[in-house]
Structures are given as C-alpha cells and as structure tokens.
Amino acid sequence: MAKGTTIRMWHRTIIVLIGMIVIGFGAIVFSLVRLQIFEAADLSTRAVDQQLQNTTLSAQRGTIYDCNMKELAKSASVWKVVLEPAFITDKNRELIATGLAKILDMDKSDIIKRSYKKTYYDELKRKVETDVKDEVLKFKQDNKIGNGIRLIEDYKRYYPYGDFASTVLGFVGSDSQGLAGVEQQYDSYLTGTSGKLVTAKNAIGTDMPFQYEQKVDAQDGDSLVLTIDEVVQHFVEENLEEGLVKNKVAERGGAIVMNVNTGAIIAMAVKDDFDPNDPFTVTDKTEAAKIAAMPEGAERTAALNTALQKQWRNKMISDTYHPGSVFKMITGSAGLEEGVVTENSHFNCTGSLTVAGTTIHCWKRGGHGDETFVQGLCNSCNPVFMTIGLRLGANNFFKYFQAFGFTARTGIDLPGEPRDYSSMYYTPDQLNPVELATSAFGQSFSITPIQMITAAAAVANGGYLVTPHVVSQIVDDSGNIVKEVGTSVKRQVISTDVSKRMAAILKQNATTGTAKNGYIPGYRIGGKTGTSQKTEVKNKTGKDAYIASYCGFAPADDPQYIMLVYYDEPRGDSYYGSAVAGPVFAKTMEEILPYLGVQPQYTEGELEKMDTEAPNVVGKSVAEAKNALTKSKLLSKVYGSGSKVVSQVPEPGKSIPKNGTVALFTDEASSDKTATVPKLTGMSLSQVNKAAADAGINISITGAALTGSTNPVSNSQSVAEGTKVSKGTVVTVGFIEKDQVQ
Predict the structure, then answer these.
(1) End-to-end CA distance of the chain
(2) Residue 86 · residue 74 · CB < 8 Å
C-alpha cells in the first residue's frame, strides 16, 4: 500500500510540475507577445526618452518695421549660461561656483549643489547680456577651464525707440511670447519654430559628451511691416504729450492718424504709456509711489496689476465713450442722404427743445436763433440735430448707425476691441423720442475712438466704410512676402455726392465755425469738435468729467488723411474739444501734411497773412539793407555803430511775418544784443503784438487768429517766457477761439 501511494504521489507531482511549466512558459510567451507586438512602439519611445535629452533652442523672433523699414522692435542676441556638472571635479568645483556666483549674481551654494547633478546640461541663467557673457568667457580663459561651463546663444526683445508707439507694438513676456499689441496679435507669425539640441545618455543616466549631440536649428519668425510711419508717429506723440500736460489731463489721451481711403493707420498713440523694454514698471510716478508705500500682500498686488493694465491698455481701441458733437457729422450725413434736410433747411434754436415732455438744452443756453443746416453744424447746435434725428425716425437713424459700423468691431488687427457692443446703444425698439434726440447729437450711446474715426473716414472718402489696419505686409527672413494686407471695403454707407457735400460743410466749420481751432492755412481742413460728458462720473475734484475731442481731415476737397485727437478728463482752463483738442490737431497736421505730400493751396486772404522769407542783407551797407527790407515790406532795427551789416536776425531765408522787423547788427559787439521773451499767452492779438514789439522780437501767428475769429486768445508760444534770444527772433504764438463751444 505504501508503494502504491508513493507512485500516485509521483504522478501528481509530475502533473503539477507539468502544469506549472506550461503556465510559466505560457505567461512568458504571452508577455513576449505583448511586449514585442502590442507594446513595442510605446516601449521603443520610452527607451529613446531614457537615452536622449532634448534641449530647446530659441528661434529669433521676427522684426517689426515701420512703413519705411525702420526697425521698431527687434531681437538682440543674449546668452544662456549652462553648467556641465559631468565635467566638473572636486578640484575645480569650488572655483567654478565662486566665479559664476559673482558674475551671475547667484547663490554660490546653489551652484555647488547643482554641480553634483548627473548631466552635461544644467541651465543656470537666461537672457544674459553680452558684457556678462564676456566676463564668463574671460573667467574660463583666466582659470583655464575647458569643459564645465557652456554659453548658448539666445534672444531678447529690444525696442530701439523706448516708449514710442508702445500701445501699438505691445511687448513680450519672459518666454518671448507676445502679450499686447501687434506682438500679441501676430504672435504666431513672429515666434518662429524652436530648434532642438538632442543629447545621448549613458547606462547610468548621465549625459554623454557633446560629440554624441545632434542639433536641429531653429527657424526664425516672420517679420511685420507696419502702416505706421515713424516720423508721423513722433509728431503725434510729441504734440499729444504736450497737450496732456498743458490741459492737465487726468485719464490719459490718445490720437489716431489714418488714410481715409485705405484704412491704413499712419500713427496711433496713447499717453501716458509705457516702455516695452520694461513693461512691468509702473510709469506713473504718483501711482508707483502709492503702490510702493503699501504693505506686501494681496491689496498691493491688486493695485500693481491695475496700474499695469491701465498703462498697457490702448484707449483708442478698448475704451468706450460718448462721442458728443463729433457724431453730428454722422447724423448730418444720414439726414442729407435721406433727404430730410438740405444745406439751406432752416431751423430756429431758442436754446432748448422739448421732446416728449423732456426739455433738452443746447450748449448755448440763449439759443442761436434762425439758422440753416450748415449754420447749425457750424454752431454745433443741439436742437438742429435733435430735429434731424426725429425726422429720420428710429429705424432710419439706426440703419445708418449700424451701417457706419457702430454696432460691431471695426476688425482692426490689434487686440482689445470690445467683444459685445449690444448693451452700448439703443435698438430701434428702444429708441424712444428722447433717446433718439440725444443720440442724434452724440450722447446716450458708447463707441470706441477707432469706430469713430473709421466712420468719419467714410463721411470723407466718398461714403465707403473701410477696415482699419496697422500691418501692411508679413515677410519671411529671406524678404519674401508671406501675406499682404490691402484695402478692405465693407460697404458704401452714403453716396459720393453726400460725402462731398458734407466735406464742404465741415470745411466751412473749420474755417469759420466751432472747429476753427483746428484750422491750418492752405490745407483745406474739414473738422468737427466734440465735448462729451462722462455720464454719472465725477472727477476727483467732485466736478463733472468730460472727454474733449477733435476729428478732422485734409484736404477737404480731396480727403487723404484723417486725425482724431482725444483727451479723457482735461482739468485745465477748459474741457471743451475746441480749446483742448483743436490746437493739438492743428499743430500736428501742420507738421505731418507736408511730410505726407499734401500740398497747400492758399487763398488770397491766406496769402496776405502768410509769413515771408527774410532777404539776405548781410554785407550790405546799412542804407542798402534798409532799402532792400522796405521793398520786401519789412521793417528794420539797427544795432551797433558799423557801416555794414555783419549779421541779421532772422537769418537769410528764415520765416518772418509780413511787416515784421529784421534786426541788423553792424559790429561784433552789437551781435550780442539779446531780448527776453515775455509772456505771450492769455492775450488778445493786439496785446501779443505790443508785448513782442516792446521786447524786440517778432511773432508768427497760428490758429484761430488767422480765421477771422472775433475773439481769439493766445494759448501757446514756441519759446518759453523768460528765455534769452537774439533781437528780432521769431516766436510762434498759437491762438484759439475763446468761446467755449462743444
């Protein structure tokens, strides 16, 4: 029995062993099939990942040019400092850590800790400038360090003109990603494609030496050619800033210059702005001081973010406002197109108009009396435009409101346009008589400045609503055109005939009407002022807050360029668009129109008031010089005891007003004669003339004093009060219309 039991136990043992072998080999076979067939691709990828290390090589970001190929933003070479721990030994570990800590301003202990890593690549610091790179190279050379420290070229964004056009250009973040402006809008084109540095690892996980590397070069980004003209932009920014200070503007100001026919933005500026080379520094010194005085914490962080967002914000694209009387050119165009008004239609302004039981006032409380439509626009009379709005009716008014582009984005190629305008205006069903009347003169709804200038361009250019744009071309690093941006016409809003008629009316307004502070002799300006109340907003002094604006184009008989000037909360002597924005418009357009090739055409009346050129009388006898000046209708004043003229002021060929006085110096001592420029602002024309004559200087007049204005007042002088100048020097004095009109 014992023998039989033993045999059966052996049989069972063999069966169990066979089963275990079958199961074991089956599991192995199954695993081999799974690993070699079903998971082979994934395992291969993981093996490669374990054997290789990828290091990203930065692509050079594309350059941003102005329309004349001047560099406005470019990528300059900087460097990555890389530690190579696998090459570092105990003999040079302390030396390398000490040297790099000093050069890179890093913690020495941190460098020592990182030097023990099992790698040939550990990035210590990025965006290192060339002078620091040179220090690292000198340190390596002086201490005969071969491997252990490596430098890899990288790129840093650089804006050569500082805060110039910053709200258009935008800026980039630490990883060279666009965060605002065209840098953000065209980031996918500018960025390029990063390269790779592929490094092999050995069996213990340490990077192999660089002879086992493979490099995939980065592909540089495309470049942008803007419609912005650097020269025009500089004029705009300089004058905008001057107006900002002069009028004590609290909430920044902005301006746009646009080609009326193509929609190309020639200049766009917002002041106060920021330096894109250092965008995370608050530029408003008062605001920065307040933030610095706050304790660390959430409140301070929130205040800093608010200040930064404010300075980055492009008001001309993102901010909405009531356009005020500038909008009257839109209502007037609609009225002419629909035939509810003609140039000779008569109105009677008593100073107010009662609509559905609500009395709505004109800016001139005493009223304008009987006036034609043209006179009503030149007077910026609210009752005239309320009447036109009511004649149009809700449906027709809204039809033009929508057609001129006020219910949707303009489509400009810059970030920041509001996504939804539906809550900013009244629909036809909501345009009750009072809402319709107030909307007709530019209140009761909100738009953006870019919408306003785009619509005004349609008034001027024959009635065509075009898409504004700031980029004209995208080019690759070989100069090939990747994309070209041309004129995009959305629709014709008004007829060419009505456009011409409206331009003629606006020209008259800039010559003799409420817009004459924007008048420029010879350039046939057409313009309209705007003064809009910021509804339910008080400024910090507790007074009502306003936005002052001026929108005009030239030449009125063949419009080419249009400009909108916009100041948010001026707190100086005036808050009216005519007094605040008009002079800035005039000064800027007078500088940029000749540059842009717009030729003046002077009337006889303008020619009579124009300055002349000082003839050359140097070297002539005093008698001959006086005779020559008399023939040129100029006066003379002789200084010194010599018999011949040795110098003159103004110099030959320089501008001098007709009937002005040329200072003649007859010896070296007399050439030192100087005059002190007096205060020439806040005066009538006759008072300015007397002050200048008493001081021995000449004045050149610009602005409202040339328009036949009945009450012009000087508001600017080109040379500051108290400045010492040569006798006979010409000082330009600007005049504005004293009447405060909207």
Answers:
(1) 126
(2) no
609-737 is classed CATH 3.30.10.20: yes
H/E run at residue 587: helix 582-595
CA 11 to chain centre: 95
Say how many C-beta atoms besides its own lie within 10 A of residue 306's C-beta. Answer: 12
Residue 521 in contact with residue 602, Cβ under 8 Å?
A: yes
Token couple for 161: 């003109």
- For residues 605 and 618, the answer to whether their CB atoms sit within 8 Å is no
Query: 52: exposed, middle or buried (C-beta count within 10 Å: 0-12, 13-18, 19+)?
Result: middle
**Beta carbons of 531 and 576 less than 8 angstroms apart:** yes
**3-state SS string for 296-338:** CCHHHHHHHHHHHHHHHCCHHHHCCECCHHHHHHHHHHHHHHH
**Main-chain dihedrals φ then ψ at residue 521, nearest 5 degrees:** -55, 130
**pLDDT per residue as tens digits for the range 207-256:** 454 445 566 777 889 999 999 999 999 999 999 999 999 999 999 999 99
The DSSP 8-state label assigned to residue 34 in this structure reads I
Helix (H) or strand (E) holding 550: strand 544-554
**Closest-CA residue to 256 (of 305, 315, 202):** 315
The DSSP 8-state label assigned to residue 643 in this structure reads S
Separation in Å, CA 595 to CA 235, 309, 592, 599, 702: 11, 35, 5, 9, 19
The fold of 54-226 is Penicillin-binding protein 2a (Domain 2) (3.90.1310)
Is residue 650 reached through a cis peptide bond, with omega within 30 degrees of 0 on the bond before it?
A: yes
Q: What is the mean pLDDT of the chain?
A: 88
DSSP calls for 343-403: TT-EEEE-SEEEETTEEEE-SSTT--EEEEHHHHHHTT-HHHHHHHHHHHHHHHHHHHHHH
Q: Is 409 exposed, middle or buried, given 0-12, 13-18 or 19+ CB atoms closer than 10 A?
A: middle
* Residue 704 token pair: 């409202």
CATH dotted code for 318-601: 3.40.710.10
**DSSP-derived secondary structure letter, 294:** S
Residue-wise pLDDT tens digits, 529-584:
999 988 767 666 667 899 999 999 999 999 999 999 999 999 998 999 999 999 99
Same fold yes or no, 54-226 and 609-737: no
Q: CA-to-CA distance for 588 and 393, rounded, in angstroms? A: 39
Half-sphere exposure of 374 (CA within 13 A, CB side): 15
Coil/strand/helix, residue 635: strand
Structure tokens at 571: 């707190």
Determine how many CB atoms are found less than 10 A away from the CB of residue 83.
24
Which residues pair with residue 737 across a beta bridge?
712
Shortest CA distance to 656 belongs to which of 595, 711, 713, 727? 727
Do 737 and 712 form a contact (C-beta atoms < 8 A)? yes
| pLDDT 10s digits, 64-102 | 999 999 999 998 888 888 888 888 888 888 888 888 888
CA dist 592 and 571 (Å) reads 28
pTM equals: 0.84
Q: Give 472-514 as a DSSP string.
A: EEEE-TTS-EEEE----EEEE-S-HHHHHHHHHHHHHHHHHST
For the chain, the helix, strand and coil percentages under 3-state DSSP, each to the nearest 5: 40, 25, 35
* Bridge partners for 53 per DSSP: 199
Tokens 């357009």 appear where?
589
The C-alpha R_g of the chain, in whole angstroms, comes to 37
The four Cα atoms 69, 71, 74, 77 give a dihedral, to 10 degrees, of: 110
Q: Per-residue pLDDT tens for 434-444?
A: 999 999 999 99
Domain residue ranges in the chain? 2-38, 54-226, 318-601, 609-737
In whole angstroms, what is the distance from residue 177 CA to residue 270 CA?
A: 23
